[in-house]
Amino acid sequence: MDGNGRWAKERGLPRAEGHRAGADSVREVMDACKELGVKYLTLYAFSSENWNRPEAEIEALMALLDRFLDEKAEELDKQNVRLQAIGQIDRLPASTRERLTRIQEHTKGNDSMTLVLALSYGAREEITAAARSIAEAAIAGTISPEEITPELFARHLYTADIPDPDLLIRTSGEMRISNFLLWQISYSEIVIVKKMWPDFRQGDLFAAVEEYKRRHRRFGAL
Ligand code: IPE
Ligand code: MG
Fold it and tell me: Whose alpha carbon is nearest atom 1 of ligand 1?
């Protein structure tokens, strides 16, 4: 979800207004995915690098996140959606962590769709943490180096029980990955959309899925 700041700047508004408008796109895209029968929707909401932004902007983002969680908690459950957060969750403010824990616990049995929020998320941090936990297991003698396969490695990532994404959509026209799910997107189809995230709505999601359907996925084979 990229381009909130530029969207606001184009309109002479503070960046926080862009994030607020972006939250409306989140609501629309969630509903659209639900309608399409998407089983997993992952939103890159806050990266490890976003901690380097001014404190006021971080606070505005966390306040929006808290509001989103308060507003959606019941609706997610009613829609049979499971919430899962990935990232360095312990770095988030206590108020946000408390909400995430409560809603994840409350929705863990839901199975129509999983909404994955990538928060304080960085793929390099995730991969490093996985390597560390495997190394610890090796030292403890519960794993031997020959047993370390891609499948085992994947089970040590935050996404252990989440399938790899079929489609990755990035808005605002930027042609880069920005530390997002580096391991998991090995064979994802990528769609780059020029629109800024606050302008990305239901119709744009449907169009991206249509584009995905035209792709021929070969996974390196013929
Ligand atoms: C994406 O919009 C939202 C978050 C990172 C939370 P940006 O804030 O990155 O917007 P630009 O890239 O400055 O336009
Ligand atoms: Mg950006």
Answer: 2
Q: Where are the domains of the chain?
A: 4-214
- Rounded Cα distance between 175 and 4, Å, is 16
Closest by CA to 19, choosing from 5, 31, 33, 6, is 5
Q: How remote is the CA of residue 2 from the centroid of ligand 1, in Å?
A: 5
The predicted-structure confidence for 172-184, as pLDDT tens digits, reads as follows 999 999 999 999 9
Report the distance separating Cα 11 and Cα 134, nearest Å.
49
CB within 8 Å of 28: residues ≥ 6 apart: 201, 202, 205
CATH architecture of 4-214: 3-Layer(aba) Sandwich (3.40)
50 part of the active site:
yes
**Cα separation of 166 and 189, whole Å?**
6
pTM above 0.85, yes or no: yes
Choose which residue among 4, 24, 50 to substitute to test ligand 1 binding: the one with the highest number of ligand atoms within 8 A of its C-beta. Answer: 4
| CA 5 / ligand 1 centre spacing (Å) | 5
pLDDT in tens, 52-65: 999 999 999 999 99
